[in-house]
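Handoff note, outgoing to incoming analyst
You'll be picking up this chain. Sequence as last confirmed:
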Amino acid sequence: MDDEGIIRLYWDRKETAIEETSKKYGKYCFKIAYNILYDNEDSEECVNDTYSRVWNSIPPQKPLVFSSFIGRIVRNLALDRYKRKTAEKRGGKNIEAVFNEMVEITSDSPDPEDELSRRELAKAINDFLSDLPAEKRVMLVLRYWYADSIKTIASRLGMSENNVSVSIRRLRMKLRDYLRAKGYEL
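Most recent structure output, in case you need it:
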């Protein structure tokens, strides 16, 4: 079933919407959650919680890109679960490295807090990404959206781990410089 059909099922409040979502996006959601949590049970719970959130969100929302909509929900749920788990016991795997890498280009200050500033920042990041060659853009998305390991990205792109690691570091620095030039305090 296509995304429009699935969204229509949600709008019509048909429970088959969850079944269709699971068929089409279950593995996708699980991969996102697992790359953050590294735990099958927690990842499954996040995926199930995602279906509930989607059910409660549609309507009133009508996502333009359903895969991004559902991906954002599962990612946020997994990150929240990760934070709760690591608050109880310190440690972590790949996601800890991803967080540490992003500290280099993000600010601890509460600015920007308002939604308009966040949207402007998101637009600036999207503009930066759109100017990159496809391979570089894929690297960043795999690393910072899907939280894939350097090894997984290297394997997927047919590159050495060192090459991927160096490229991602350089791209982070370019993004930091780009955002600073746009006036963002990082």
